[in-house]
Structures are given as C-alpha cells and as structure tokens.
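Q: For a teaching session next week I want to show students how multiple molecules come together into a single three-dimensional assembly. I've collected the sequence lines for a complex. Could you give me the predicted structure tokens for the whole thing so I can convert them for display?
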Amino acid sequence: MIHRKSVLVTGGSRGLGRALGRVLARGGCRVVLVARELEPLAQAVAEIRAEGGEAHAIAADVADKDAVYAVAGQAAALVGPIDVLVHNASTLGPTPLRLLLDTECEQLERVLQMNLVGPFRLTKALVGPMALRGSGLVVHVSSDAAIEAYPRWGAYGVSKAALDHLGRSFAAELAGTGVRFVSIDPGEMDTAMHAAAMPEADPSTLAQPELIAARIARLIAEPERLQSGARVSAAELPP
Amino acid sequence: MKPATQLPDPRDGVRLLVLDAARARFSDATADELPRWLDPGDVLVVNDAATLPASLHGVTARGDPIELRLLGLPEGARARGVLLGAGDFHTRTEHRPPPPVLEPGAVLWFAELRAQVIARAALSPRLLELDFDREGEALLAALYRLGRPVQYAYHAVQLPLYAFQTVYGGRPWAAEMPSAGRPLSWSSLLALRARGVGVFALTHAAGLSATGDPAIDAALPLPERFEIPETTAAAVARAHAAGARVVAVGTTVVRALEGSAALHGGALQAGTAETDLILDHGSPRRVVDGLLTGMHEPSESHFRLLSAFAPGELLASAHAHAASAGYLSHEFGDSMLILAAPAARSLARPRSGSRRVAAATAGLLAARWG
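A: Of course. Below is the structure for the complete assembly, covering every listed component.
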C-alpha cells in the first residue's frame, strides 16, 4: 500500500529522483523533493502538481551538516512523519572521470560527503522517528560500480560500496524495529549524470529513468518482498 | 546545582539519580543503566516533538532590534511568539531590556521575512500573534534558514539545531527541546524493548521555559497542544490492566497524559487537545507512575510537578545529595528517574477544583487575545 505514504527523495530535481517523485505522487504518495538548485526543483514540483499530485520542494545540499535537521524538520512539517527515505542524490566527483592517482584528496572527500556522510546524517535524523513508530524504509540508490572496480570510477565506486554497507549495517542494528534498508542498482539510464560520466554512450541504448522509477516505486509499495539489508539491481525487480 | 555547558558524549553517559518513592530511597546510576530500573510490561512514553529553530532576530519598522521566540510551528502564515528586547542569549532573559510596545498592525522584519502584529495577549503585550508575509514551504524555508534554537545564558556559544534534538524526535512542534529525553540513546531504547519494556510516543508542543517577562513567566507553562496516538493509549491501558508502570519521559509527557485523562473523566484517550494542566503534590495522578526528568532546583515550577510523584522530604534529600555530588542541571545535564508505586495511582474522578483543560486551541485562550 503506497497511497498517502510520505516520501523524501534527495536529488529530486533531475533524472531518476525526479522520475521517482512523479511516479510516487501518481500513486498517491506525499512527496518531498530535495536538491541543491531551487529552479529545476521547483519545475519538478510544478510537474507533479500539474498532474494533481502532492509535492514539495526543499532546496538544500545533503552534504551540508547544518542543513540536515532543517531538511528533516521542514519535511515533517509539510507532509508529516517520513515513511520512506530515498537517498538518490550523488556526485561522480570531477568529470571527465579520473584515475584515483589523479584525484585530489579533497575531491574524494567531497564525493564521500555527498554520497555517504550526507545520507548517514539524514538517515540519523529521519530513522529515529521511524524506529519509534515501528515502520519505515530507507532506499539507497547504488551502482554497479559499488561491486565492480572500473578504472576512473574509483571515488564514486568507493562511496557507493560504502553506502551499500551502510545500509547492511543499519539493517543489522535495527532488525526487529520495523525499519528496512535496501540498496538498488538502477543500471545505466539516460540521465545527465550518465552523459557526464560516459559522453560517448548512445542514449538510445540506455534505460529511461521513468521505467526504473516505476520498478522502485513497486518495491516501495511492498518493501517486505526483500530482506532488510538486501542489494538488488532494478533489472531483477518486476516491471 | 551547576548547569551543564558541554554536550555530553555519549548522550546516555550522563548521571541518573533513581528515586524509589515506595521504598523511600535513592541511588546513583548513569542514564545508560535505565533499562535495569524498569520491568517487563512497563511502558515508557516519550515526546517525539523535534525542536524548532524558534529564535528569530530582527528589527521593528523603526529599526529597534528585537528577538522573537516562537511558541510553536506556524499554522499557515500565522504564528504566536514572545518578543524580547535587544541582545541575545548571552544575556539572561530577565536582564534583557524590554522590547518596544507594539500595536496591532506593527511590522517586524527578520532579514527579508516580514511579519505583522495581529493581536496581543491580555497576559502581556509581549505575547503576540503574527502574520508572516508567506506560508507553507516558503515560510518554513525562511524559518529554518533564519531561526536559531532557543538558548540561555549558561551557554557560551550559539549551538546548532542538531544539538537540541532527541534521537527519536521527528515532528517539529517544540519551541524548546523536550530535554528529559535527550539522554536516551538508541542503545538504551533497543535494550528497553529487548527487556519487554514498551517504548511509545506522543507529541507535545513543549513551550518556552523562560521569557524574562514577569507576567508571562508567572503563567508558564502556557497551554500546549498534544497528540496521543491510538497505539500509545492502548499500550498505557494494557500496562495498567497488567499492573505495570507507565513512565513518562519529561514533564511534557506528564502534562499530555494527565491532561488527556483530566479531559476525559479520568481515562486516557487518543487524539489531539490542548492542556494547561499543572500537577503538584495535591494532584491526582491517573495515568503516570514514574517520571524521567532533568535535574531541577526546588525553586523551579518543574520541581512542583515532581511532588506529584514522591514526598517532598524524599525529593529534598535527593536534591541535596545531587547538589553535593555535583549533578548538573538544564538541557544537557543529568537525569532523575522517579518511580512512584503503581498503587499510588489515583483513580479518583477529576476534582472540580482542578485546572481547566481546554479541548481546542480556539477556546478560552483565543478569547484572551485582544
């Protein structure tokens, strides 16, 4: 049952996050989209509202420590306690992608802040109330690069591997509380991020984010289909 | 007793003074040992209100500096708050200069956020109802960008909003942190549940603890809104039926639970209401058998509430012990668990002389606004 669930999606202004917000709102969810830039975010919200869905925008950088409780507080004020948290925002690090030996330490730190520490902070702020109520779901948007070591994808891959393990560790610690964690590898999609990483790729060979979003939305509707802490690829999920 | 000026790390490492009223004794422990003082079947009720950035610094239309401390989350563009004069938390509230007296229609500016005074309370002209120039997402974004958590003079530096949150707070209703729950870690909460102690929530809009305005301070706590979920009301009923204890985390939880019972002929009922209930030694306790709270001075109004749970002599000797043993007070300080015997719970009908409990926010309080 997805109807009336309150869902917060980071990286909600573009690509998969935007598509997911739209699909969830069509299913009757109350959606909060978080992203750094207000303008594309406001467009994403307007798109959902034009279809009769409920969506709200919070402009914030999930890597900003001081923004975390502001995001959590605003979101709960807008849609009530958050039932589902989707950590979708992420950064590749510097593009064109670089070898690790050519990556500055500060660039790796920035990737880890955005892709790992930011999600950890937001989870800390939002999962406490979920555990108290006895239900909740946290979705980590992962990547093939979390499993396979591809040259030039090191900073991103390290952050996603750590994010997967963060989900598994939370799942182990919160077993029995009703709060579930799942990592989803969406696969290659036709998004701005993919174009930045692999500009030579032919977009027609890539999945549309709407298709992947629909699969993730079905999982959000029935999270008990997966064990907490599991990692799946979107291709394995029913369409 | 000295105020705690450092954030305790870990949060459950603070000291815990346990008062057993039935056995008329007390002992020293630490907050992470809480689970061993409660029994399977007991129910712990916490306030899941998150702390708002309720302090806004601004200027009047004439340019006089002021601080507005919100009493709670705005409804639409409307909010209630207390006005303080120039200065900030570094000065004790009672030493702050009074703010200019504002008439309805007066305008306040908080950076680019504008608010107009709609009404002043009969209690004090500093207690205002305001209309902001925006609502919803835009107002929330401005409040969270411009607002700071309410602090007091015993802190040397401005602390971030996250310092004023419990590990389970989620609903942004509280003008100040429901601080009795701050020493609860998830390690403790999961240990409690593993032991068979129920951990349940309600939401209570914890208000300001001091304003520096004698008229307002004498009337604190002001009526506060609360919401009790069905699951919590049912858990309390089960505990009582089984002869187990209901332990409130903080005076806000006591006010909500006993306020609800007072409103419904002695029985706790799920739902939303507003209470101005103030408990003291003469009050019948209908719901709550124990209290986890911060350390309070006998001069504070909070201390009066403690006397509903334990005899004054025991409280006085426990306080003297805590003071000499160096226990710390205020929101980052040490804790006290007071356990009254369940049999002490009064099943008496509400007294006609007990304080009014308003069923709706639009009741008597609204009538007092001019």
